[in-house]
């Protein structure tokens, strides 16, 4: 039976929006939205102008209708003022010389006022920003009062409808502008939030990288112990802070370690250094510092010790750590020489503490190795 093997496909990488892409999309949305808002605001200004114009037309219609009513009343008054026995005639009788002079003058003045109002209204409609139906061409005389009333009513109805339509359009546009502004607010807030998230993520990553770099700069890569730089920085801190009490530095060199590399290889030598470093760390107090100075050399900084006897006991423990690691790995080759310097009694300058302990360690090596020795105390002044 033939077996079908499904090829393994690596999982697809999770897509994450890039800050530049998010910013470009947000900027495009913002520009588009602002352009749309600008167009709508311009249309709102046009609607506002049309509303104001329609209000002016409706006011002109009202004035013309008032003038029509006044002319109609003046005509009735002129007819009522005729001498008795005169038969009623057409509207042309308004010019009959037998009609009362005052009533006739009032009627003629009302007709003139009506004609002026109708001409004003017609001119206003003719100047409308949007084409609108004009008034019928007629003379504002008594015979055309009914037709004029109908024309004014139709005109008022048209412009009231125009006002209602513009008001509805203003409401729709206002709602659109408010909706677009709300969307733009969400887009901008979302873009800012995304930028803050990206910034926080990158800041956290940068902080992690900074910590890693700082840790790598102050620690030995193989053993994980602090390096010479961190040890010297700790000595500077002790000197600057003026902490009371003494501190001791134990400089450790591994005797016979070169033979381990030559006989068993560097991998075994590296494993031995890691094992020794772990034992050194476990043998000291939490407040003390053990560092790898380079190669097969280590240093232990002891703070607040009581006496030289205590430092000697620590040196013995460090030597036993080397011997135990050698025995565990079955090498039988490595021991330790330890030089001890103390600040400020034996070494007055903390910057010379490492060199003094190193000199004491070499004194041990010159006298047979596998032991410890203190730096000589300075002679008292004469």
Give a written overview of the molecule.
It comes from Paraburkholderia bengalensis. This is GGDEF domain-containing protein. Residues 245-377 form the GGDEF domain. The chain has helices at 19-80, 101-126, 145-218, 228-241, 257-264, 266-283, 308-329, 353-366; strands at residues 247-255, 289-294, 297-303, 335-343, 372-374. With 382 residues, it is an alpha+beta fold. The protein has eight helices and five strands, in the order ααααβααββαβαβ. Strand 4, helix 8 and strand 5 form a beta-alpha-beta unit. Strands 2-3-1-4-5 form a five-stranded mixed β-sheet, sandwiched between helices. The chain folds into two domains: 19-82 and 92-187; 228-374, 2-Layer Sandwich (Alpha-Beta Plaits). The chain starts with 18 loop residues before the first helix and ends in an 8-residue tail after the last strand.
| Shape annotation | rod-shaped
Class by alpha and beta content: alpha+beta
DSSP summary, beta strand count: 5
Low-confidence stretches: 86-96
H/E series, N to C?
HHHHEHHEEHEHE
Quaternary organisation of the protein chains: single chain
Task: Determine the mean pLDDT.
Answer: 84
Approximate helicity band: 55-70%
Widest sheet, order of strands: 2-3-1-4-5
Main pleated sheet: 5 strands, mixed
Organism: Paraburkholderia bengalensis
Domain GGDEF: 245-377
Transmembrane segments: 21-39, 177-199
Protein name: GGDEF domain-containing protein
